[in-house]
Design a protein that fits this description.
This protein is mainly alpha-helical. It is 62% helix and 0% strand. It starts with 5 loop residues before the first helix and ends in a 13-residue tail after the last helix.
């Protein structure tokens, strides 16, 4: 069931990306390894593709919302599995797992099309 509007999803995108980007420093695992760089790179990427998504909070509106949601899902799965893929699960895993689950959940619960109408000039 998709009950999160694309507008709400946009707010979640920017907040999630900022928290993800800052998570190594917020949660004390900014040691410079994969545990640090995975969330930093994904956080930057999240901001970039939010900016270019065709929804209420996108600035450039190039990326269709269904594609955005597929990227969210893939990023969430990658983030969730990253502690085991890169071998740092014994040191830190909870932020990666929790933020990964959030990305997966919001990707599956968000409407596929924005509610606003695209204005055309005549």
């Amino acid at each position: 069931m998709r009950f999160i509007s694309t507008k709400v999803h946009g707010v979640i995108d920017y907040l999630w990306s900022i928290v993800l980007l800052a998570s190594p420093w917020l949660f004390g695992f900014a040691d410079g390894g994969a545990e640090t760089w995975v969330p930093v790179i994904l956080g930057i990427g999240g901001i970039v593709y939010a900016v270019v998504t065709n929804y209420e909070l996108g600035l450039v509106k190039l990326l269709p919302m269904p594609v955005h949601l597929m990227i969210d899902l893939a990023m969430g799965v990658f983030l969730l599995l990253s502690p085991w893929l890169f071998g740092f699960a014994e040191n830190i895993a909870a932020p990666h797992v929790v933020l990964g689950i959030m990305a997966i959940g919001t990707s599956l619960m968000t409407e596929k099309e924005p509610r606003y109408q695209v204005k055309t000039s005549h």
